[in-house]
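Audit log entry. Action: structure prediction of a protein-small molecule complex. Ligand: adenosine-5'-triphosphate. The ligand was supplied as SMILES and no pocket hint was given, so placement is left entirely to the predictor. Protonation state taken as written. Sequence taken verbatim from the request; no trimming, no tag removal. Recorded inputs:
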Amino acid sequence: MMDDAPIIIEGLDHTFGEGEAGKQVLFGIDLRVERGSLTVLMGPSGSGKTTLLTLMGCLRDVQAGSARLLGTELNGADEETQVLLRRRLGFVFQAHNLHESLNARQNVLMGLQVHGRGEPGRHHLAASHLLETLGLGARMDYLPANLSGGQKQRVAIARALVSNPEVIFADEPTAALDKTSGLAAVTLLRDLGRLRGTTTVMVTHDPRILELADSIVTLEDGAIVRNETLARAG
Amino acid sequence: MTLILTALLGRLPIGYLQLTHNPGRLMAALAGVAFANVLVFVQLGLAGSMLESVATPYRLFQPGLMMISASGAQTLSDASKIPRQWMIRALAHPDVEGGKEIYLGQAKWLSGQQTSSSIQFIALNPDAVDFVRHDLSTPLSGLALEDSALVDLRTRFIDMGVFENTSPDAAITFEMQNRQLRAVGSVTIGGGFGGDGVFLVSDQTFFRLFPQRSSAAPNHILLKIRPGANHDKVAGELAQLFPADTVRVRPITSAMAEEQRYQMTERPTGLIFAFGVGIGLLVGVVIAYQVLATDVADHIREYATFKAMGYRMNFFVSVILEEALILAAIGFWPGLAFSQLFYMALAHLTNIPIFMTSERAVAIFVGTVAACALSGLMAIRKLKAADPAELF
Ligand SMILES: Nc1ncnc2c1ncn2[C@@H]1O[C@H](COP(=O)(O)OP(=O)(O)OP(=O)(O)O)[C@@H](O)[C@H]1O
Ligand SMILES: [Mg+2]
């Protein structure tokens, strides 16, 4: 039977730098992420969470071991394979990374345009609709400079979600937000994910978010020390 | 504007939005592009005016052939003397209908205590009305009157205003080479490399001004060719009649083109213009590069984000080229306007024939676009720093 888990990692190592100066930060990671789940990565600072996320998300070259993302081996994947894979993913960064000279709607449109010209009218509608869903209906023509931190983060989430990605990677998406809007943003990510069957992998320190997770993976010193799958009703 | 560009590009006009988001930088960039444009326009304008002043004396004559001694054949004014018998020989050719001698001489014209202009005299027989431009035939026949001259209204270093309305009935007398000359009309030629102005006189007047010159040794011989005959072919056949390397026979238009080429490629002046154009281009490329590279550096996180989203290199290239083309397309116009003003001021102050031509404007526009695109392509290297792995 074909294994349809979107992320399957086996024996993954990672080293920054080379030779004497090299520093290994990931050691023999084995991990499997189920389709449609919300997986949380946690662990102390410097334990390798971000490094693991960028490797799974095809943003960093895999050096040793195997990482299969959406059925494609990332170890040795060429530029074009990476580009095409990235288009099936969504990223929410700790910093919103919105483009300062594009307004909210234009920033979201960038998430659609990567798939080609499409029908401009339909793109426009999809972006507006999603921003409305996220409570930004009145802010669509605002530049990022005129939005609050929480609003910017929601625009960034809209940009990540608008193209219906198969996997969403988020690294401390709530770090820049206060508690309530942080939780609201993650709830939103999870709900939209559930609705669309999207797989989400998220790094976070926020204990309240853990309650929303299907699976919690704990890293320490570059190795997985705990991997709990939470039984969930429904 | 955004909508138009979106339709045009098939994507959001990121470059346009980015540039207009920072008006201060945009203004500085446009000023830089305009400045570089002015530099190039001025150089090409001066070069053009040189070509124009080379061409003007040739345009005094009807199209035909011109014989010149092979030594000093590069320019109209440096021509060595040639034997007049050669004209007789050339006249034997069935397609040659007539010939006339041209004598050249230089003299100083003291117009005040301090100022003097070096005048290039062009002398030919007043009967040669068929050999000169139509509008000059009547003034030329007027030169049959002893010691009369057509003076050059564009003569440098001298205010020629008083000569503007000279005519055979209202002649103005002036002194040159210790002779009283009468200005009975005027031409508009202007200073070139042979002098500060060109005066036309009859051959007889010429011999009185330059007593050492003999009618047997003109500087050029003009040949009138039977209508319908091929000028190049006749020129080739005539050249066969003379010992090799003694004389050159060319259509007047070729002689003009050759002198233009000579002045542009074999004299330091041409090099100086080329150098000036090069400097202008360099300034433009450097300024545009500076602006585009800074812009890339300022948006490196956004570009890295786009990379993470799956945008390919050609997307970034197209954004930077979009910016480059906007700079070129907008910066060109103030550059053109300033250059036009500069030309007008220069023409007014120095009397040189400097003016805008549409060919030059188009060429510089294309050059501006190319230079900005080049800067953009160089700025693309800065994109290497956009690493999506560093975003988290
Ligand atoms: N680009 C890099 N070059 C060299 N070392 C790096 C680089 N990025 C991370 N590291 C090192 O790798 C180790 C793991 O870093 P990583 O960012 O993955 O940790 P983290 O678990 O995300 O920490 P935090 O919770 O602070 O974000 C750390 O020791 C860090 O110093
Ligand atoms: Mg981290």
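Audit: result stored. Strands of chain B lie at 65-69, 96-110, 116-123, 148-152, 172-176, 179-187, 197-201, 220-225, 247-251. The CA atoms of residues 272 and 354 of chain B lie 17 Å apart.
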